[in-house]
Automatic annotation (TrEMBL):
It comes from Streptomyces misionensis. InterPro entries: IolE/XylAMocC-like, Xyl_isomerase-like_sf, Xyl_isomerase-like_TIM-brl. It comes from the Bacteria. Residues 34-298 form the Xylose isomerase-like TIM barrel domain. The lineage of its organism: Bacteria, Bacillati, Actinomycetota, Actinomycetes, Kitasatosporales. This is TIM barrel protein.
Amino acid sequence: MPHVLDHIRVGSAPDSWGVWFPDDPRQVPWDRFLDEVAEAGYEWIELGPYGYLPTDPARLAEEVARRGLKVSAGTVFTGLHRGPAVWADTWSHVGRVAALTRAMGARHLVVIPSFWRDDKTAEILEPPELTAEQWGHLARGMERLGREVKETYGLDIVVHPHADTHIDTEAHVARFLDATDPALVGLCLDTGHYAYCGGDSVRLIETYGERLGYLHLKQVDPAVLADVVARSLPFGPAVQRGVMCEPPHGVPELGPVLEAAQKLGVDLFAIVEQDMYPCEPDRPLPIAERTRRFLRSCGA
């Protein structure tokens, strides 16, 4: 029997229901997502793309509460490596999401860097490597974001290394963490994205454990990933090929990741995010139920 991982709070997200956008006819309606995520046995959810779930705090609070759910975080996208010129637009976007996140009683804001190539067309939007000046903008910008989100909304930011962004590989993640103040900038480790980019999640937790503020649980299919790498496919088409697969059929093994996180001795959210955009509407619920059973078998 696995021992109980009592520091790990498991949830799921709209992403596991094939939701990537605030409004898209190929996505399940928000009320169906809420019904099914509760039915699958999850207690915690994320807001997903801002505007997918109702943005009126009173209505959202009612809808979530009557299904026995609670919100763990909101998500924002940022391009802070571009320097102070983008701050005003960034803060406008962040403010809307942070206000709703706080109103739901959540304490975390997941921050995803902007993509260097288009998620759908594969068009190269920017060089995949930042200059030294851009690294400086990124680090100082994230620290400013962390400070102002904390002061204004009482939330902690957790930066999410992500495929096709400038914070992706082990080297880039280490460089970013080394360049930022731990008091202002936490880490959201997404096990699937980190494996997709060649990283070792357990080693990251053991090396930078004091920075870990949040977990996203997903797995990569190694065979599909090898094809994605060989063809230099962008992330969107890679997802359509099934690169993110149902646990426990991929990598990394989630049991050891959860054990390493438990050893840190701090309470952590572990939110399941199985990228499936686009997907058939009846596909997510059975996968979500099986995944919840699997995580219970790991002690979570």
